[in-house]
Amino acid sequence: MLRSGTREIKREFAGYLVVHTAVISLIVLALIIAGALLGAFARTFLSEEHLNTETKDVIKMSVGLIATLSALVLGLLIATGKTSFDARVTQVRQIAANAVLLDETLAQYGNEVANARVELRRTFNLMVDRIWNENNSASRGPSPFQMTGAADSFIQSLVNLPAATDFQRALKTEIVNIANEVAKGRLSLFVQGRDTISMPFLTILVFWLTVIFGIFGLLTRLNVLVAVIMLLCAVSVSGSIFLILDMNRPFDGMMRIPSAQMRGALPPLSP
Q: Which of 32, 113, 122, 261 is surrounded by the most beta carbons within 10 Å?
């Protein structure tokens, strides 16, 4: 009972973090600025003996090591987020292309599949709605995939198509294969539609960045110019965190994949 409650709390907390991407970025910005201010405040309690040349050299080498690690991790996270986003875009386009190919193949089959083409459009629109709904931040969760009744009945209708000629039998095989490709793309999008960014990984990166800016504040006497430059750097870093998190939400983030390109893939049937 306790474990179940703990898992539920973790799931709700994770959902909160995913939904509030901008809030996380602002928290990162606040932490970095707080680190710089804390370093500047600590400087007032240190004597010049603690900030001699040898001490500064050691501190600079240490912060250089942390900065290198942070740059590598930040670049890795951005590359991972971009790769994941591009993969989702490719999957969506492939599903749409296969749906168009399936419709064209059904059109060659004959007038007896007119109802199947109508059902294809209805089932495809339902699939698009489900893809964008289940990948929405508020709907994410470890739920298993379940095929809808409409999709199951549509696939069964394709398998049971009457084939009177060799041409129709060949087309029927092609139709079933294309429908399987659509189903595979759909399942692949579901399986890969989970978060690709590790929050502990991101937390460690934010800690490193806070330490770096804290050392900047420790080694530098703050003035207006230094404060402005450090603020711009902090905003840039928090902006990169926002970019990473937003690319991890391709269906409901600011850089979301538009559903219109799938909804408009199948043209309306002529009466």
A: 32
